[in-house]
Design brief:
This is DUF2000 family protein. Pfam families: DUF2000 (PF09391). InterPro entries: DUF2000 (IPR018988), Pep_tRNA_hydro_II_dom_sf (IPR023476). It comes from Bradyrhizobium aeschynomenes. The chain has about 140 residues and is of the alpha+beta class. It has one domain: Bit1 (3-Layer(aba) Sandwich). The strands form 2 sheets. The protein has a 5-stranded mixed beta sheet, with helices on both faces. Strands 2-3 form a two-stranded antiparallel ribbon. The model has no long low-confidence stretch (mean pLDDT about 95).
Length: about 140
């Protein structure tokens, strides 16, 4: 199935494995919260056990070699009116959502120590935002 939109996550390559997984989970939840229409139907197995619904389209995960690549993607997204979900390195040091927002609010956009971004937009727009990045290895 071809979707009109694309969901892309960009995660900095130099993070520890646990950090990459944490960032991917948080960024995906940001997309789900912003676009409830992308959530599919709940799951049920052959034993009639119910499970939560998931995002109903593929999520493509790209690697960023450094902070500059993430900043470039952020600028490209914002210039195309694509609102991203973000994760900064400072958020690893917090323990709750309010503190996460505080550490982001304390830093100007140009100085954010980005480790991850997520976008959902028209396919061609997302392709322009992520241009030059490769799938995460």
């Amino acid at each position: 199935m071809q979707f009109d939109t694309k969901i892309a996550l960009i995660i900095r390559n130099d993070l520890e494995a646990w950090q990459k997984l944490n960032v991917a989970a948080f960024l995906s939840s940001g997309i789900a919260a912003a676009y409830p229409e992308c959530i599919g139907a709940p799951y049920e197995d052959g034993s009639a056990t119910s499970y939560h619904a998931l995002i109903g389209q593929p999520i493509l995960i790209y690697g960023a070699p450094d902070r500059a690549a993430l900043a470039r993607a952020l600028d490209r997204a914002l210039s195309r009116d694509v609102k991203p979900a973000l994760y900064t390195e400072d958020m690893f040091k917090t323990t709750h959502d309010d503190a996460n927002r505080e550490v982001v609010r304390a830093v100007a956009r140009a100085d954010l120590n980005l480790v991850g971004l997520a976008f959902r937009a028209e396919r061609k727009v997302v392709d322009k935002v992520i241009d030059g990045l490769k799938f995460h290895a």
